[in-house]
Amino acid sequence: MRSETPAAQANDSAPGDGLVKAGVILFAIGAVATLVTVAPLFLGTDPFPTVAYTVSMLMGVGFAVAAAGVLRSIAAQRRQAREGATAPVQAG
Predict the structure, then answer these.
(1) How far is CA 43 from CA 33, 34, 53, 55, 85, in A?
(2) The dihedral of CA 12, 18, 20, 26: what is its sign?
(3) Which residue ranges run through the membrane (predicted)?
(4) What is the CA radius of gyration of the chain?
(5) Is 15 exposed, middle or buried (0-12, 13-18, 19+ CB in 10 A)?
(6) Long-range contacts of 79-88 (CB under 8 A, 24+ apart)
(7) What's the rounded Cα separation, in Å, for the pair 67 and 26?
(8) Could you give the CA distance from residue 76 to residue 92 in angstroms, rounded to a whole number?
(9) Are the C-beta atoms of 19 and 66 separated by less than 8 Å?
(10) Of the candidates 13, 3, 15, 21, which has an alpha carbon nearest to the alpha carbon of residue 62?
């Protein structure tokens, strides 16, 4: 008999995971935009238009979205722990 992982996998995503993933993506886009907008200062070229600086604000937005996801995950875990603590113990 072989020991294998079952074909049907359980849904392991917790509440807030989607927000954290979206926040990481937004943060990465904002970080790249920040590097791009700072580059002309070192290269001595003309600065980018205001839109480029606005896109760099996504770094802060991404951080806030990821933090909201973490807080949502914490709240769900606390709720789950509270429900488990109040559940009656069954005698076996």
Answers:
(1) 16, 15, 17, 20, 60
(2) positive
(3) 24-44, 50-71
(4) 22
(5) middle
(6) none
(7) 12
(8) 29
(9) yes
(10) 21
d(CA 15, CA 59): 22
Q: Decide if 24 contacts 62 (C-beta within 8 A).
A: yes
What are the structure tokens assigned to 9, written together?
A: 């996998």
| Token pair belonging to 24 | 């990481």
Give tens-digit pLDDT for 57-90.
999 999 999 999 999 999 888 888 888 777 666 6
The per-residue pLDDT for 47 is 84
